[in-house]
Amino acid sequence: MFRPLPAFIGLRYAGAQRRGEDSAGLVSFISGLSMVGLILGVALMIVVMSVMNGFDRELRERILGIMPHATIYNANTEIDWPALRRQLSSHQEVVAAAEVWQVNALARKGREVTPLLVQGINPETIVEVSNIGRFLEPESLAALKSSEEPTVILGQGIAEKLAVEQGEYVSLIVPSSDDGDGGRRAARISGFKVVDIFHSGTALDHSLALLDWSRAQYLAGGGAGAGVQLRLHDMLGSYYVLRQLVNELPAQNFYGTDWSSTHGNLYQAIQMSRNLVGLLVLLIIAIAAFNVVSTLVMVVIDKHSDIAILRTMGASTREILLTFVSQGALVGLVGAVVGGILGVLGSLVVTDLVAGLESLFGVQFLKSDVYPVDYLPSELQWGDVALVVGAGFVLSLVATLYPALQASRVQPAAALRNEQ
Fold this sequence. Notes:
Layout lengths: L4 H11 L6 H45 L3 E4 L7 H9 L4 E16 L2 E10 L1 H7 L10 H7 L4 E5 H7 L6 E6 L2 E2 L5 E2 L2 E11 L9 E5 H8 L5 E7 L5 H11 L6 E4 H44 L1 H9 L4 H45 L20 H18 L1 H8 L3 H8 L1
Parallel strand pairs: 3-9, 4-8
Antiparallel strand pairs: 1-10, 1-11, 2-3, 2-5, 2-10, 4-9, 5-8, 6-7
GO biological process, one term: lipoprotein localization to outer membrane
Keywords: Cell membrane, Lipoprotein, Membrane, Transmembrane, Transmembrane helix, Transport
Organism: Microbulbifer aggregans
């Protein structure tokens, strides 16, 4: 005979076909329903965690791939910025450095006006700090410096707001401001030819414009805004590295900001959303798993006479207990494994599926001026799959304990007397 006997009987109960009686049909229906709920819960949680992993990856690799991890500034325009860049890049925690001149400005074409952040860059060093070159034509960055007329690279969101295309002209305006000595710095306006339009799929498409260093310096009127952008080995430790670098520089009023001051709220929101959504979906799995309780309770009621006969034939309390634990374990194992497979498949196709729905219905579910990126990212991590599948199975196993204990306490004489 098949050994162990409790597993054999439990598997027979779990795989038994409907016998035509109302109670058997109801038990079979509830058992299938609990398994389907567990499958959907596990699959949904894997997909949700993969999407949250995708948003986290896009923040680190796409948004912070374009923007620096940290930037050191100084209001003194007489500083030798190339020399400072070389000094900072030699630090052991710094991967690369590039000089930059940042100006808050307005872009205008006709009657359309939009605010933006203008970055004056050195095309030769910016590619070491930023991966903006991935979204541009190969010659676009070089054209910023080599072109005889003023040129600019715009984000796609800015270009759409202004209804401007590559090769057309826009005006960049820097409003008047304090010069730091009690006077006013006059407003500056200049026309620029758009040499390229980048589409990174992030919120930067709606806020960033690139100029040559000297053009940005002219727009700023020689005021504050110059600095050195840094890419660091440890992104999460950028604040402490920045403080260390500033303290090591000569006392010339250096100060800095890191990515946490500009995108830290976004990073925290992603992490919080991941935890909250994960908790909610885990509760769904728990509810589906504990549906096994109602299934096994009905099985115990339906099998009172069978349990009594097994007890009279010498089956121990432990064997009766393991019989029903085996049945619940099978439901949990099948539900968790099938849900895991569906979740993995869903995580792999969810990005293309959403993109297909957007194309089919002509709508865009995610817009980069509202969300971090304009598409639904997904990154499957096998550790998450193992955790979710394991949690689903363990919860189902825990749910079997109560009805299994009730079955082990059935008294043979009382059960058989009630069957008469």
